[in-house]
Amino acid sequence: MADTSDFRNGLIIRFKGSLYTITDFLHVKPGKGGAFVRTTLKNLRTGRVLENTFRSGESVEIVRVERRKYQYLYKEAGGLVLMDNETYEQVTVPEDFFGEGVVFLIEGSEVEILLDDDEEMISGEIPIFMQLRVVETEPGFRGDTATNVMKPAKLETGATINVPLFVNENDILKVDTRTGEYVERIKN
Description:
Blueprint (H helix, E strand, L loop, with lengths): L1 E2 L8 E4 L2 E11 L7 E8 L5 E7 L3 E4 L3 E11 L2 E6 L5 E4 L16 E6 L5 E5 L3 E9 L12 E6 L4 E5 L7 E5 L4 E6 L2
Antiparallel strand pairs: 1-6, 2-3, 2-6, 3-4, 4-5, 7-8, 7-10, 8-9, 10-11, 12-13, 12-15, 13-14, 15-16
């Protein structure tokens, strides 16, 4: 068993029956009373963030996880079909396994899955940025780069995002999958 002196950002612990990653921690030694560690924890399954205070030296269970790369193959009724890049074994995960950014996944994309000691899938991560083609938008106009006016554009995955007026159909865009926002247009 480890204790609070082993805390570091990114450490995964079992807390109240669930797996959490430590996103932030602060060791506090008040003038009166015992020391404690104030932490911000993120649930790996739900993504919910909570704050908790541990007594200094309190025992915690550290969970060892393995990151494994998978390739997204296709979507079916039961969820998303992924292939392990090392063993070529195919697995199906629910659509909400990757959170809201799943709408930006294209076939052939590489994703990461976190596995615990029992080879059970904990959570999944998609790339932070994806390059996607615009399949439908209103025509752009020359010189419309000075204002911050946006228009909707439908991407090859079916997702719709707001883009600047100068973006045209068949342009390739860099999209932030965490926020669903346009980042930049990629030169062909």
